[in-house]
Amino acid sequence: MVLKYIDNIPLIPLAVVAVLMALAPFSPEPHLLEKSRMLINGELSKPIDIFDLFWHSFLIVILVIRLVRYTRAGS
After folding, report:
1. Which of 18, 28, 35, 37 is disulfide-compatible with 63, CB 3.0–4.6 A?
2. CA angle centred on 65, ends 51 and 52, rounded to 5°
């Protein structure tokens, strides 16, 4: 059921917004990069940092699901 909603999201706008969200804020460094580094180093413990990791990666996950379903539907 939820996947039908994901299938209806236009691909190009989703990709643009997902990339912008993944790279935000642009300086000093993107939060996704910072939080991923914290996760790898075992320093990701504050709830706001965990939320930030999910917030900045959520649309990338949706984009990957959308692309996988798009390529499988075309096959």
Report:
1. 18
2. 10
pLDDT digits (tens, 9 = 90+) for 2-46: 888 999 999 999 999 999 999 988 888 898 899 999 999 999 999
What six digits make up the tokens of 16? 């643009």
| Residue ranges with strand state E in the chain | none
Distance CA 7, CA 18 (A): 15
Q: For the whole model, what pTM was predicted? A: 0.83
